[in-house]
Amino acid sequence: MSPAINFELRRRTFIAGTAVAAVTVGMSRKAAAQTAAPVGAESTTVFLTVNGEGRELTVDNRTTLLDALREHLQLTGTKKGCDHGQCGACTCTVNGTRVNSCLSLAVMHDGDEVETIEGIGAPDAMDPMQTAFVENDGFQCGYCTPGQIQSARAVLDEIRAGIPSHVTDDLTAEITITDAEIRERMSGNICRCGAYANILAAITQVAEDQA
């Protein structure tokens, strides 16, 4: 058996060793940061047509469409909910197609047409879907309502265009506006207050009025 080693930790030895370790870690982090430095420009200038108005803005390449709308253009009607594309509060339309703006980078939409809740109506001239939501109490706290309305309008357009959903995945089948069809297509928009029945009634009212 090897003889025991008598080890005495002196204060000076401890401080010197700690200093060496700190310098080594600092150099390693600096080298890692230099290695991970982005290649090319970190920002981009994009041109968007937002609610019919041309807007040019320079954004960090990591900026989402949602943050570009809210923080750069002050269009705060589009809400930030989960920020993971699961609640639908940030729903807007891009070139007529609804998207979760929190999952889409602004730089991907150079030249695109974006519509937010601010672009579809005003208090004194509301869109039919906005009116139906008010008449049917399709909201409680109202936080998800802009995304619900944007999605609802797109849902009726999708059904009329014959775009299938999971309920009607047969491309040859005739798609009709039923409660099940609407519920399936609206399933990506969460209402934590639970106003689903009233939301469905509002969408059905608009569908019937436009039939």
UniProtKB/TrEMBL annotation:
<dbReference type="InterPro" id="IPR012675">
    <property type="entry name" value="Beta-grasp_dom_sf"/>
</dbReference>
<dbReference type="GO" id="GO:0046872">
    <property type="term" value="F:metal ion binding"/>
</dbReference>
<dbReference type="Pfam" id="PF01799">
    <property type="entry name" value="Fer2_2"/>
</dbReference>
<feature type="domain" description="2Fe-2S ferredoxin-type">
    <location>
        <begin position="44"/>
        <end position="120"/>
    </location>
</feature>
<dbReference type="GO" id="GO:0047770">
    <property type="term" value="F:carboxylate reductase activity"/>
</dbReference>
<keyword id="KW-0560">Oxidoreductase</keyword>
<dbReference type="Pfam" id="PF00111">
    <property type="entry name" value="Fer2"/>
</dbReference>
<keyword id="KW-0479">Metal-binding</keyword>
<dbReference type="InterPro" id="IPR002888">
    <property type="entry name" value="2Fe-2S-bd"/>
</dbReference>
<dbReference type="InterPro" id="IPR006058">
    <property type="entry name" value="2Fe2S_fd_BS"/>
</dbReference>
<dbReference type="InterPro" id="IPR001041">
    <property type="entry name" value="2Fe-2S_ferredoxin-type"/>
</dbReference>
<keyword id="KW-0001">2Fe-2S</keyword>
<dbReference type="GO" id="GO:0042597">
    <property type="term" value="C:periplasmic space"/>
</dbReference>
<dbReference type="InterPro" id="IPR052914">
    <property type="entry name" value="Aldehyde_Oxdr_Iron-Sulfur"/>
</dbReference>
<dbReference type="InterPro" id="IPR006311">
    <property type="entry name" value="TAT_signal"/>
</dbReference>
<dbReference type="InterPro" id="IPR036884">
    <property type="entry name" value="2Fe-2S-bd_dom_sf"/>
</dbReference>
<keyword id="KW-0411">Iron-sulfur</keyword>
<keyword id="KW-0408">Iron</keyword>
<dbReference type="GO" id="GO:0051537">
    <property type="term" value="F:2 iron, 2 sulfur cluster binding"/>
</dbReference>
<dbReference type="InterPro" id="IPR036010">
    <property type="entry name" value="2Fe-2S_ferredoxin-like_sf"/>
</dbReference>
<protein>
    <submittedName>
        <fullName>Aldehyde dehydrogenase iron-sulfur subunit</fullName>
        <ecNumber>1.2.99.6</ecNumber>
    </submittedName>
</protein>
